[in-house]
Amino acid sequence: MWSAVVSFYTTFFYEPLFNLLVLIYNILPGHDLAVAIVVLTLITRVVLYPISHWSIRKQKMLQDLQPKLEALKAQYKDSREKQAEAQMKLFKDEKVNPLSSCLPTLLQLPFFIALFQVFQNGLKPESLSVLYPFVSNPGGLNPIGLWGLLDLSHRNIPLILLMGAAQFWQGHMLLQRRPPIHTGGAKDEDMTVLMNQQMTYLMPLVIMGFSWTFPAGVALYWFMTTLFMALQQWYIFHKDGHKNKTQKDAINTPTDFGATS
Questions:
Q1: d(CA 227, CA 224)
Q2: pLDDT in tens, 87-130
């Protein structure tokens, strides 16, 4: 059964993405593999845009509910059962599923793993044996990209630092969007805020350490996909903030009748 799963994954995820990378590499003037990686990452982000957009929306909805959730924790701090019932009622009333934001991530996971393997193994000559008949075999992929400035087959420290910075920006953006909590100073609130802050600073370090042993091709993909996701997240938050401000201004602006009465 496991071999069938691997075969399905290879046929429907790895091979199409690898062939697309080689196709882009063949088409690009100069056959720059780094630019091909950026283009492929952008294409996959566009394809996965509806899923990631939905995921960010759900994360934002859960964040907006945090003050109410923390208030329920403070109100029912002596009864875990009543606290859970009140939280489930809140989710039902607000039409929010606390697990819904995890589903898009799971749906994107096969693409992430496939792209990761494409950039990790794609420089090996034997990897070209899986090319489709309509994709020309370039005979090999030149690992020197960005017009000779970047060797994609070896570790690149500046790319790793950029990757960590993009991860920090994305996480810090979520932390900034967290609504203020006022529930009388419950200890759980301080612990939750502290954990979120720690994860914001810790995750970039973990990812940077994780990528230390990988070639620059993997780091370039990771940096670009994190940057695109962070930009999408910023756009959604900025758009929603502008929309909420417009609605608030419309409510607070007196009508002509009210101004003359």
A1: 5
A2: 888 878 877 776 665 665 666 677 778 877 887 777 777 888 88
**Radius of gyration of the CA atoms of the chain, in A:** 23
**Boundaries of every domain in the chain:** 2-253
**Nearest CA-CA partner of 65 in 36, 97, 107:** 97
d(CA 143, CA 150): 8
Residue 76: name the closest of 90, 62, 87 by CA. Answer: 87
Residue 76 sits at φ, ψ, to 5 deg, of -115, 40
DSSP SS3 for 261: coil
End-to-end CA distance of the chain: 77
Whether 218 shows a pLDDT value over 50: the answer reads yes
Per-residue burial over 210-248, b = 16 or more CB atoms within 10 Å of its CB, e = otherwise: ebeebbbbbbbbbbbbbbbbbebbeebbeeeeeeeeeee
Which residue in 16, 15, 39, 17 sits closest to 27, CA to CA? 39
CA dist 19 and 105 (Å) reads 24
pTM (2 d.p.)? 0.72
Amino acid at site 238: H
CB atoms within 10 A of CB 93: 9
Residue 216: its H or E element: helix 216-252
